[in-house]
Amino acid sequence: MVSFAGIDHVSLTVCDLDRSQHFYVTVLDFVPVLDVGYGRILMHPDTGFTLSLMKHEGARGGDFTELTTGLDHLGMTAASRADLEEWERRFDELGVTYTPIRDMEFGFHLNFRDPDNIALELSAPNEHLLAAKKALAEGHTSQADIDDFIEDHDLDLPRAGKD
């Protein structure tokens, strides 16, 4: 069966290319690699992740809201909860609006916003997420396998396809 090999890039529609580029370069260390007039292509030097910032003619403008069908947020990976704490300090220094780290069922989450109010998140795995990734990599992908994993790890999570 054919499958995709990974995530290649994300394109975000923004109101001001210069302002958005400045944010992603200053806050998240992206490097500008191409300006095509209506958009900017940025890459992250450590991960190679590609982010394009687009400004469309006739766009409605205004702040992003996750309450409109489409993108809810863009999630990026941090190595650990301690790294997320460092990110909080960096956000404080740069005046970035964020929500304090949340400890969730499958990891630690630090949510923040870009200049167009686009919802962004840095997350770090906890032991449950690391175990789940290992189980999936080992081929434990049936619904019964997943239900057993949730029960074995004493997770209080709703089960897919269950009421």
Protein architecture, described:
Residues 6-125 form the VOC domain. This protein has 163 residues and is α/β, with parallel strands linked by helices. It folds into three domains: 8-57, 2,3-Dihydroxybiphenyl 1,2-Dioxygenase, domain 1 (Roll), CATH 3.10.180; 73-125, 2,3-Dihydroxybiphenyl 1,2-Dioxygenase, domain 1, CATH 3.10.180.10; 127-163, no CATH class. The protein has helices at residues 17-28, 81-94, 127-137, 143-152; strands spanning 9-13, 31-35, 39-43, 50-54, 74-77, 98-104, 107-113, 119-124. The chain is globular and about 50 Å long. It starts with 8 loop residues before the first strand and ends in an 11-residue tail after the last helix. The relative contact order is 0.13. The model has no long low-confidence stretch (mean pLDDT 87).
Question: Brief description of this entry?
Answer:
With 163 residues, this protein is of the alpha/beta class. It has 4 helices and 8 strands; from the N terminus they run βαββββαβββαα.
- Spatial ordering of strands, largest sheet: 1-4-3-2
Kindly estimate the percentage of residues that lie in beta strands according to DSSP: 25-35%
The separation of the N and C termini measures 30 Å
Radius of gyration: 18 Å
| Count of DSSP-assigned helices | 4
Q: What's the number of structural domains?
A: 3
Compute the average pLDDT.
87
Please state the overall shape, judged from the principal axes of the Cα atoms. globular
Low-confidence parts: none
Structural class: alpha/beta
Instruction: Tell me the major beta sheet.
Output: 4 strands, mixed
SSE order in H/E notation?
A: EHEEEEHEEEHH
CATH architecture call of the largest domain:
Roll
Can you tell me the CATH topology of the largest domain? 2,3-Dihydroxybiphenyl 1,2-Dioxygenase, domain 1
* CATH class label of the largest domain: Alpha Beta
Keywords: Metal-binding
Domain VOC: 6-125
Protein name: VOC family protein
Pfam families: Glyoxalase
